[in-house]
Design a protein that fits this description.
The protein has a two-stranded antiparallel ribbon. The protein is mainly alpha-helical and 71 residues long. It starts with a helix and ends with a helix.
Length: 71
């Protein structure tokens, strides 16, 4: 059920026009767990294109510190 809720939240976020202007950490951290997963980042093409580089520790998620390095 948690996965379904997360998926629905991502769909709602992706369909929102605000997502295209939002590169705010808290906006992208849909589930509020303090990191941005690839799934969450997928709604922002700019962040996705930099994801591997930004993920300095290679753990597959972006912390707020890693995210803040985005250009």
């Amino acid at each position: 059920m948690k996965t379904v809720n997360k998926t629905l939240a991502l769909i709602a976020l992706a369909s929102s026009s605000a997502v295209f202007a939002a590169t705010d950490f808290d906006t992208l951290d849909v589930d509020g767990d303090g990191v941005i997963s690839k799934s969450e980042a997928s709604v922002d093409a700019k962040i996705m294109s930099q994801f591997k580089t930004l993920d300095v520790d290679g753990d597959g998620v972006l912390t707020e510190t890693e995210f803040s390095a985005a250009e």
